[in-house]
Amino acid sequence: MNYVVVSSIGAVFMGFFVLFVRMKAAKKPTNAKKIILPPIFMSTGAFMYVVPEFRLTPMEIGEAIIVGMLFSILLIKTSNFEIRDNDIYLKRSKAFIYILVGLLILRLILKAILSSTIDIGQLSGMFFLLAYSMIVPWRVAMYRSYRKLYKELHNQN
To answer: How far apart, in whole angstroms, are the C-alpha atoms of residue 121 and residue 52?
Structure first.
């Protein structure tokens, strides 16, 4: 089976997994560890660049980082916290679901188009870097927002 098709199917499953996790997370209070750990765990994926097929040119690195950071703006705008029952919760956002599905569809379209001109290994490296460049600013913004509410919550008592 074609690598592009297999990786696209994997991306769809990961997208639905993220939606499921996000919906479940909104039902429980959050903490700093839940915000900080995902990018740290994801960083192990950078070991892919040890293999020459996944290495990127400086131009590809720049493109992936810029696009990832631009996409992170959408996630940052739809991730808000609220204080409920003396705990901090992630607010549910209907827009987040649409944005995540939209990003997934855009990723599949870009992958289909770019796979004809960019080697599948490099393309995988680019999409990993794009995702990481999207998640890190998003999680940093979430952490800052969380800390602000945390201070507000604990200064009241």
So the answer is: 9
Asked if 114 and 3 touch (Cβ cutoff 8 Å), the reply is no
Q: Measure CA 42 to chain center.
A: 10
Q: Are 89 and 82 in contact (CB under 8 A)?
A: yes
Largest CA distance in the chain: 60
Segment 38-68, tens digit of pLDDT: 999 999 999 999 999 999 999 999 999 999 9
Q: Tally the residues of the chain.
A: 157
Distances from the Cα of 88 to the Cα of 30, 101, 120, 146, 148, angstroms = 6, 26, 42, 8, 11
CB 136 within 8 A of CB 41: no
Task: List the beta bridge partners of residue 81.
Answer: 90
Dist CA 15 CA 9 (whole Å): 10
- Name residue 87's beta-bridge partners: 84
Whole-number pLDDT of residue 107: 83
Element of type H or E holding 82: strand 81-84
Q: What is the pLDDT of residues 64-114, one digit of tens each?
A: 999 999 999 988 998 899 988 889 998 877 787 788 788 888 888 888 888
**pTM for the complete prediction?**
0.82
Beta bridge partners of 83: 88
